[in-house]
Amino acid sequence: MLEFINGTVLSLFGAFLAVGLAGVGSAIGVGMVGEAGTGLLTEDPDKFSLVLILQIIPGTQGLYGFVAFFFVLNKLGLLGGAPVDVSLQAGISLLVACLPVALVCWLSAISQARVCAAGISLISKRPEHMFKSVLMAIVVEFYAILSLLASLLMISNIAL
User: Fold this and answer.
1) CA–CA separation, 156 vs 17, rounded Å?
2) pTM score of the predicted model
3) What are phi and psi of 91, to 5 degrees?
4) Most exposed of 50, 82, 84, 87 (fewest Cβ within 10 Å)?
5) Which of 105, 83, 101, 102 is nearest to 160 (CA)?
6) pLDDT (tens digit per residue) in 89-119
7) Is the C-alpha dihedral spanning 99, 104, 110, 113 positive or negative?
8) Could you tell me the maximum CA-CA distance found in the chain, to the nearest angstrom?
């Protein structure tokens, strides 16, 4: 029954987790900030550009998952050339290598959205403090970037 599970399937599962969980986190995050921003825009439509900047920020984690996804597909030879035969051990390693970016980006996008939604509250009363709102969101972003780097280092150093 489980004969279809091999190194390639496990590698692809890791890639799908990276892009899927990071994407879901970003979609939730962008939605949360959008909800908060819509409330502000009903009161002050002139703050649209400030709201949009804060709404875009949690979407970056989805991009990080997408980068890891492409690194795995490239490693497997699925983006050009001949597909590589992946051992079960290498497949498990690639799956595990995708977990940092998948899990951290999923959770950090949602956490970052909370910070950005709070930033919407700040700019509703004091728009001159937009930089502070963005800076606080970037602090959360740092951990997503670290998880991407960790995943990419592991992916690139796995021998197939």
Assistant:
1) 17
2) 0.92
3) -65, -45
4) 82
5) 83
6) 999 999 999 999 999 999 999 999 999 999 9
7) negative
8) 61
